Amino acid sequence: MKIAVFGTGTVGRALAGAFSRLGHEVAVGTRNPEETAARTGRGAMGAPPFAEWMAEHADIRLDTFAAAAERSELVVNATNGAASLEALAAAGAANLAGKILVDVSNPLDFSQGMPPSLNPVNTESLGERIQASFPRARVVKTLNTMNAGLMVDPARLAGGDHTVFLSGDDAGAKSVVTGLLRELGHRDIIDLGDMTTARGAEMLLPLWLRLYGALGTPDFNIKVVRGG
Amino acid sequence: MKIAVFGTGTVGRALAGAFSRLGHEVAVGTRNPEETAARTGRGAMGAPPFAEWMAEHADIRLDTFAAAAERSELVVNATNGAASLEALAAAGAANLAGKILVDVSNPLDFSQGMPPSLNPVNTESLGERIQASFPRARVVKTLNTMNAGLMVDPARLAGGDHTVFLSGDDAGAKSVVTGLLRELGHRDIIDLGDMTTARGAEMLLPLWLRLYGALGTPDFNIKVVRGG
């Protein structure tokens, strides 16, 4: 499948690399490819310069949001939640129309200090805002509830015995995304329902952030334990 | 231990009954004991009249919030989240001073229809509001993330292999509550940290409510899977 991954941070790199290894044709979308490729400093989370990562992934193109989206069948939004709508607008509604748009971002608001709060929250979600802003895109919210390493290699924790959630209004898109999640190694995939259920998945983040603090590692995930 | 359980609904009954079976001296607190005992109709969730439940639990007293709190060492708030501060005010700050106050409620707001939203949310929690309103009470938030049956009998699901969270500012109170949770059968107890971490535990509810919808049963719980 032709996949565009928006975002050059830890999550974008992890997903782009994993889909490429699985044999998909992957482009990474960014605002300004020349500027991204020319950066020499480390990223906000200490990630090495993107050019270094690109050199190790010669089969992955770096493109503008618009060009990456135009040439893809499926777009993954792995940009910063606060900048996601802007990134998708830069891609262009026409380039997203009819496409599956997998939103893995969280609307974290760092403006009031740590830990971040959520915005929107409770009576809306970023997933819903994206679907409302791009009504012809087939948006699926997923993977936002775990760290990037587990997104692409769930088996590294408890042999993969933990849960990933799906929300979205398009059953066909959820079916395709379920297939991709299985390719990545996810075994316990719960379809929460329509896009409003993304509120539940996004509102797990405040607990996730406190668990990160309490456990001292991001290498954990939620398993929904139910009766047999 | 002398335990007062505030609330005569499903959660209050489950906790009061369980603590009594474990040998604790239990009183149930309610606004107006005579009125509660005189009710003949079923409760909002279809629960039988409280008098029927009392008849099967002759060792449990029914008392006013104030009298139940005054005679107890530990108070459990299992009232409706929207009415919790009012119920605790009726108990009287003096009757809660120095006491461990276990808050198992959720600030669910049903005013905008189903599923309920949360209020407060994100930048505050009901646990924090309770602690701020009763600064001399030793508040511990716990058990709010699962249904009443699992609160008191975790082993009925996957042999108890799932997680319960604790939040609170008083380490001694959290230690006592951890002991009570172990008596109930809880094995995986994660101390999230101070009372602000109750935001995380309360904000799990939107996901819990969607999982209830997706799974068709409230008999599930979250397990935090972490590396060995």
Architecture overview:
- The structure is a homodimer of 228-residue chains.
- Chain A is α/β, with parallel strands linked by helices and 228 residues long.
- Chain A has one domain: Rossmann fold (3-Layer(aba) Sandwich).
- Helix content of chain A is 38%, strand content 22%.
- The first copy, chain A, contains eleven helices and eleven strands.
- Chain A starts with a strand and ends with a strand.
- The mean pLDDT of chain A is 97.
- At the A-B interface, strand 7, strand 10, helix 10, helix 11 and strand 11 of A face strand 7, strand 10, helix 10, helix 11 and strand 11 of B.
- Strand 11 of chain A pairs antiparallel with strand 11 of chain B.
- Chains A, B: This is NADP oxidoreductase.
- Chains A, B: InterPro entries: NAD(P)-bd_dom_sf, P5C_Rdtase_cat_N, STEAP_metalloreductase.
